Amino acid sequence: MAMAHGTRVQYEPVAEIGGGAYGTVYKARDTESGQFVALKSVRVQTDQNGLPSSTVREVALLRRLEQFDHPNVVRLMDVCATQRSDQETKVTLVFEHVDQDLKTYLERAPAPGLSPGRIKDLMKQLLCGLAFLHSNRVMHRDLKPENILVTSQGQVKLADFGLARIYSCHMALTPVVVTLWYRPPEVLLQSSYATPVDIWSTGCIFAEMFRRKPLFCGESEMDQLGKIFEVVGLPPEEEWPTDVTLSRKNFPPLMARPITDFVPEINEQGAQLLLKMLTFDPLKRISALNALEHLYFHDEETLIETKS
Amino acid sequence: MFSSLFSSEERLPLILKTTTVDYILGLCTFLLLRRVFSSTDEPGVVLQGRRLSTQSSDAMTVAFHEDGGTCIAGTTIFFSFCKPLNVGFHLHSLQALVPSLLQREIATALEKLGLISDRTYAWEMFLEMVRSQAQYRFPNADLPLHFTDATRAILVNWIIQVHEMMNFQEDTLYLAIHLLNLSLRLIKVTTTNLQLLGMVCLFLAAKKEESLLPEVSFLCYLMDNTYTKQQLLRMERKVLCGLKFNLSHCAPSHFLSLLAAVARCSAMVLSMARYLLELSLLEGQCVTFSPLELAGASLCLARLVLQEPSTPEGDAAWCLVSSIHFGSEATLRKIMNILASVAAKADIQEPNATFVKFSSLATMHVSRHPGLIDASSLLLECT
Predict the structure, then answer these.
(1) Theoretical Cys-Cys bridge with B297: which of A120, A206, B142, B335, CB 3.0 to 4.6 Å?
(2) Distance of CA B171 to CAs B74, B202, B349, Å?
(3) Which CATH superfamily is domain B252-381 in?
(4) Does domain B138-242 have CATH number 1.10.287.1080?
(5) For A133-187, how does the pLDDT look when each residue is reduced to its tens digit (9 = 90+)?
(6) Domain A102-303 in CATH: superfamily?
(7) For residue range A83-103, what is the model confidence (pLDDT) as tens digits?
(8) Which of A253, A244, A295, A254 is nearest to A274 (CA)?
(9) Is residue B378 less than 8 Å (CB to CB) from chain A?
(10) Could B247 and A63 be called an inter-chain contact, meaning their C-beta atoms sit closer than 8 Å?
(11) What DSSP state is assigned to residue B69?
C-alpha cells in the first residue's frame, strides 16, 4: 500500500487509521517532506473506456477546491491513478493528516464541556467551510462529528466532502454502515435533496456540542424521523414532500417542544439559529451564508469591540 | 505522425457514413439542445432575502469608469450615449445603484445559462469566476522545442473537427484545448504521440462535460488505428496523474454567454463573437490572455464589425456590462488586433475548421461576413 511516482515510493504507510465506511484509510509519511498524510484509496471499476466520467468529475472537483486553500477544508495534496488490472483502477487521494476529529474533541473536553465561546468559534469555522463548499456546488451529504477535524490549534477542517458521490457510484455493493443521526428528513424520506442537507447535520452537531451527546439517535429511518418530530413537531401537511411514498399519517401529531428542553445551556440567539437549521422544509432552512450573518455570531463581535 | 492525422482528416466524410457514427450521432443529437437563452427577457426576479455584500470584492471586480470614453477600446461610440446618464448621477450614487442591478442581471443570466440552480450564491460564484479565471492564462506562449505554433495549430484544428463531428458542447472544446496547453507544458510527449495526446485531452474534457461518450475503439479508429486502445488509456492515466486530476477551467465561452446575456446582444453579435473567440484557440500567442479578456475582446470586436443600429435598451445594457472590468485597454486592443487579422485571412488558403463551422446557416454565416475583411482598419479608426 504505497504510492509510487515513477519508481520511487513517495508515501510510506505508518498505520491503519479507521476502517471508514468506504474502505481502509492509512496514515502515511510523505518521504519528500516528512509530513504525515492520510491516504484514501478508491478502487474504481474500469471498462474498456478507461476511468468512469463520474470519478473523473468528482476528483477534478475536489482538486479545483484546492486552489482556494480554504482554512476550514482539509487539504487534498495529491491524486494518482494506477492500473491494477484491466477491470480495476485505483485512485489514491492524499489528504493532509489531522489527528483529532470533533467526536474525540468533544469526548476529551473536561466537564462541564465546551465553553459557549468555544462552541461559537467552532460553529463559525464549520459554517465558513460549508459556505465555501456550497458556493462551489459541493455538498457534503454525510456531515458528522467523525469527519469534522479539529487541529491542535483549534482549527476546524471539513473532511470527506464530495467523497460520498465518488464512492456511491462505484461501491454501491459494499455493505456500508452509516449513521442516521445527522440525516435530514428529506434524505430519510428519500425525497430530493440539495445543500440544505448539510445545514440540518450542522444543526444536529451544534446541539451536540452543548449536550455532549447526539440530539437524535434513531435506529431506523422511521425511528429517526419519529425522534426528530418529537423535538421539532410534526410538520404541517403542506410542507410534507409530495414525491415520497411514506405518508405523514404514519406519525403521531406532535407539537414542537421548546428547543431549550433538549439543549438547556444554549443562549437565546443560539436557540433561534438552531431552530432555523433544524427546519423541516429544506427550502425554508437557513443557508450557511445567512447562518454566518445571524445575530448569534454578531454579539461576539460587538463584545470584542466594546472590550477593546 | 501527421500523415496519419491528415489521412484521418481526409477520411472524415467517409467515416461519417459508417454505422458506428450514425449510432453515435443519433445518440448525440439531443446534445444539440444547447442551453439557449433569450437576450430580451426582462430580469424580473426578486432576490432572496439575503444581504448582498457590497464590500471590497465588488470593488475589485466591478471597476467604474468616471470617463466612459476611456473605458474599452472599440466601445467608445457607445459610451457617448452613456454620458448623459453619468452626468445625471453622481458617481457614488451610480455605484450604489448599479452593483445591485448588475448582481441581479448576472444571477438571471447564470440561471438562464443553466450554470446555477440556486440564486443564493450567484453573485459569489460570479466573483469567484472572475477572480479565478486569471490563473488560466500562461506566463508565456513558449512550447517544447519539438512543437511549433504551426504544429499546434494543425493539432488544434483537428481537435476542433473531431469535436464538431461528435456534437460536443462548446465548453468541452475550450477545456480540451486548455488541457492540451497544460499537458504540453507538464508532460513529456514525443512528436509521434502528439495526436494521441490531443485525442486524450478531448476525451477527458468530454468525460468531464458530456453526458454521452464515444467508445475508445472509435477514437482509435478516428486516428486511423495508429494507436491501440491500451495506448490511449495509458495516455489518459498519464495525463490525469501529470495534471494531478486538475481538470478545472473557466471556459471563456462561459464569460461570453454571460456578458452577451447581460448586454442583451443580438443572436448575430453573439454568433460573431463566438466565431472570433474560437479563432483564438488556434493562435498559440492567445494562451497568454485570460478567459475574461478573450471573451470581452471577442464581444467588443463582434459589435464593432457588425455595427448594428443602437437602441436605448441595448445601449443601457451594454453600459451596464461595461462596468465589469474585462481587462486593460491595451490588452483588449491587442487581442482584437490578433483576432481581426486572423479572421481576415481565415479563408485565404485552406479554410480552418472554425471558419467552416461558422459559415453555416445555423451560425448565420458570420465567418463570411464582409465586415471581417477590414476589421483591422475599423480598429485603427477607433483609436
Answers:
(1) B335
(2) 27, 11, 28
(3) Cyclin-like (1.10.472.10)
(4) no
(5) 988 878 888 899 999 999 999 999 999 876 666 555 444 334 444 679 999 999 8
(6) Transferase(Phosphotransferase) domain 1 (1.10.510.10)
(7) 888 888 888 889 999 989 999
(8) A295
(9) no
(10) yes
(11) G
